[in-house]
Amino acid sequence: MTQEQAIEILKTGANVFLTGEPGSGKTYIVNQYADYLRASNIQTAITASTGIAATHLNGLTIHSWSGIGIKEKLSRNDLEKITNSRYITNRVAKANVLIIDEISMLEAGTFALVDLVCQKIRGSGKPFGGLQIVAVGDFFQLPPISKNGKNSQFAFQSNVWEKTNFVVCYLTEQYRQDDQEFLTILSAIRANGFTASHLQSIQTRIIELAQSPKDITRIFSHNVDVDAINSQELAGLPGKAKVFYMFSRGRESFVANLKKGCLSPEVLELKIGACVMFTKNNVKEGFVNGTIGKVVGFNQETAYPVVQITNGEQVEVWPMEWTVEENGSIKARITQIPLRLAWAITIHKSQGMSLDCAVMDLQKTFEFGQGYVALSRVRRLSGLYLLGYNRQAFLTHPDMQNQDQIFRSQSQQAQASFALIPKEQIVQQQNNFLAACGGSLTQKSPSKKGLTIKKEKISTYEKTLFLIKQGKSILDIAAERGIVQGTVITHLENLVLREKVNYEELKRLIGNDLLLNIPEICQAFRGLNTDKLQSIFEKLNGKYSYNEIRLARLIMAFD
């Protein structure tokens, strides 16, 4: 099934299991559908089975969202506590759509508990209380964590799965790998058809550790190996490390989940020469989650790192935000430089990334699908440098062979059935779903054939100014324009200098919380008699972010 077909099915409100091989665009579809729902004013709960995946999507873990936490069973008293929680009942009751990413790592019992909580809070016996459920993931990848030595069941093995009546959308296009030989090997592992000839191809990529290329990511199965390598490599670089601290705001429990899922550490130490990986997407700035580069310097004014990525371009890396959104509003946020040391990472943390090349050690793989996840991170066989492997590295879960054929067949049936429905009827179903959820119909402006109007080119500063005049916040402007907040503030500095933004508009953009602390920052500027951001940051012991200090400096321009 194509991405376009999957999107059209999702818009009808059907419960959907969105699956496909690594690199087929599952996360892209989730983001596209979530954007569509937001634009239509549909309340959407974006969750995942793991903190890392949830953080990538600006969501919560399904355990936190539903209130079940780490519980494997819910007593009557447990269920009563959950339903008496205002926070939990509000978010479950208000939601229209529930998205669960990385469904492969969600145990069947937990999947059933989420269904129970939703039914109880929403007062409906329908699966998940009548929510549209979008389960996303690939069951060939990392499975649920075994508990007490017992094998855990997949979510699809739960009775709730069958009752939910999923439409299976099995994506068949490939957007990561462009090497046919490598694709054949990955498909063989997936189909449990890995042969001696496939192994022979893999063995051509085996190297000794001493021969491994410099400054590309190494992937290991255990944290202890990763931490040791990153610490050792950083210590071996000359000079004193620059330290960047994470800032957080919002509910403590949400902040804790964000920190747990964020790939950037709370305390990030960098030196010139450090191998780093970007941990967030910003296509306009030239990087995505998984982009590798090297620190080549630090901006003298902001102290932010300058990273040279593999295509030779240099990027000054400003802080970015990870947020928890609930019913359309931000409940918690953390801010950090979107980097991590990347001489080494774990297989688990590599899930969802696309890498041009990587050094891998698969000699200690211990779980079905671990080797498959690691190998499928790289785009082509020539980008694989293998230190070794064990037999487990090429095994996927035995329960998945027959089930995968079932999923493929169900997807083909759904595709064929959908193709028979007239386009007008599909649009009507989509509009009916929006109306049932209290959403708004999004209309496209009619186009006039043969009429081409040349638009006047507007500068990037004027585009930001237009949004400021509309009353948008810095966060909203950054999101709408697809740029980081630091870039918006750069535009703001230019606009203030040109007297395009007045004092009252600037105060609105800064917000009441920061305005209360402006005097402290301004006093530091005057006391040190400097306009250097790093000096103020260090003087105030990192209490305020560089962006907040820049905004305070702008206020001083009106003194």
Strand order of the largest sheet: 3-2-4-5-1-6
Based on the coordinates given, report the CATH architecture of the largest domain: 3-Layer(aba) Sandwich
Taking the sheet with the most strands, its summary is:
6 strands, parallel
Give the radius of gyration.
25 Å
User: Class of the largest domain in CATH?
Assistant: Alpha Beta
- In helices, the fraction of residues equals 40-55%
Show unreliable segments.
443-457
Q: How much β-strand is present in the residues? A: 15-25%
Helix count, DSSP H or I runs of 4 or more residues: 24
Rounded mean pLDDT is 85
**Count of spatially separate domains:** 3
- Fourth-level CATH superfamily of the largest domain: P-loop containing nucleotide triphosphate hydrolases
The shape is globular
Structural class: alpha/beta
User: According to CATH, what is the topology of the largest domain?
Assistant: Rossmann fold
The N- and C-terminal alpha carbons lie at a distance of 61 Å
Number of strands: 20
Pfam families: HTH_40, PIF1, Pif1_2B_dom
Protein name: AAA family ATPase
Domain AAA+ ATPase: 12-230
Organism: bacterium (Candidatus Gribaldobacteria) CG08_land_8_20_14_0_20_39_15
Could you characterize what this model shows?
It is a single chain. 41% of the residues lie in helices and 17% in strands. A hairpin with a 2-residue loop joins strand 15 and strand 16 (329-336). The protein has 24 helices and 20 strands. Helix 17 (460-469) packs across helix 19 (485-497) and helix 18 (474-481) crosses helix 19. It is α/β, with parallel strands linked by helices and 559 residues long. The chain has a six-stranded parallel beta sheet. It has a five-stranded antiparallel beta sheet with strand order 14-13-12-11-17, with no helix packed on it. The protein starts with a helix and ends with a helix.
